[in-house]
Amino acid sequence: MLKVIFFDVENYEYDFLKNACEGKYNYKLIEKPLNNTAEISADISDADIISCFTTSRVSSQILEKFKNLKLIALRSVGFNHIDTEYCKEKNIYVETTPDYGNKSVAEYAFGLMLDVSRNITRAYNDLNEEIVNPHVSMGFELGGKTIGIIGLGAIGTEMARLAHGFDMKILGYDIKENPELETKYGVKYTTFETLLENSDVISLHSPLTKNNYHMINEESIKKMKQSAVIINTARGELIDSQALYSALNSGKIKAAGLDVLEFEESLSNPDALTDIERLSDYSLKKTILNTRLLKLDNVIVTPHIAYDTIEAVTRILNTTMANINAFCNGKIQNNVV
Prior knowledge:
This protein has helices at residues 11-21, 60-63, 84-90, 102-118, 120-128, 154-165, 179-185, 192-198, 218-222, 241-250, 265-268, 281-295, 310-328, and strands at 3-6, 26-29, 49-52, 71-74, 93-95, 146-150, 169-173, 187-189, 201-204, 229-232, 255-258, 299-301. The protein is built from 13 helices and twelve strands. The chain has two domains: 3-100 and 310-328, NAD(P)-binding Rossmann-like Domain (Rossmann fold), CATH 3.40.50; 102-301, Rossmann fold. Helix 10 links the parallel strand 10 and strand 11. It is α/β, with parallel strands linked by helices. Helix 4 packs across helix 6 (154-165).
């Protein structure tokens, strides 16, 4: 019987995974993420399969401790938190759960855009402090404004559909253009620079790759309107935190709605700081920047929960177990290495 270890297990996942594995696998459910501070005990180091979420940071140093590992079954579509080069070298498959949260993430991104454009959270917080200042909470309408969508895959396409319903003009940038989106939602594909220069709102929906790391940086921000708003529900590393903080603090751009940050686990996962001596200078600097971003009045930050709906989580769990079951029957699906 193959051994399967699940990390990052939430309470609402427990019964599903228990029922799915009982009698089929030698399994263990672990609440904590698998990251550089995790202790890998002898009773799990012989796992054939591990499963984790994006809160885990699975480095080669961690992977080296799993001598029998054959599959990493991710409960996410993103896989930049896994050392895929090591996996390729050691013939470890990495399988994802694609298309689980297209509507969930797009709706959340649109919610952030509505919140930022109308200062909803700021007005709520002010009212809790018994402050009522209509001038401070004055926002702008989305109808007629231009949204630039970077990455028009499944989530970006859903974002375009929502923006079209709000009567927004839509600019799109992607390495692969889809003519159908032009017909259905009026998406106008353009260059990255043109999108930056002409968008009132810029929403990121690209996977993180070596080529687009810090695609939003000091130089790209200089090309944006001073009234521009940035929405990011994709990956924190798409944006240079230092450049974003400086632009928001100085008024170079208007506002931001962020569900993801660079080294976001320092805020969302207290265990990330339990062994602070092991953190790099990079991690510590990003942690400081993240805490400063949280203090700005023109920023909304949430803890990477855009995917988090009943429907999306159900799809994640079903696809994860389908991946594991298929793998054990000799079928590889949704592999990314």
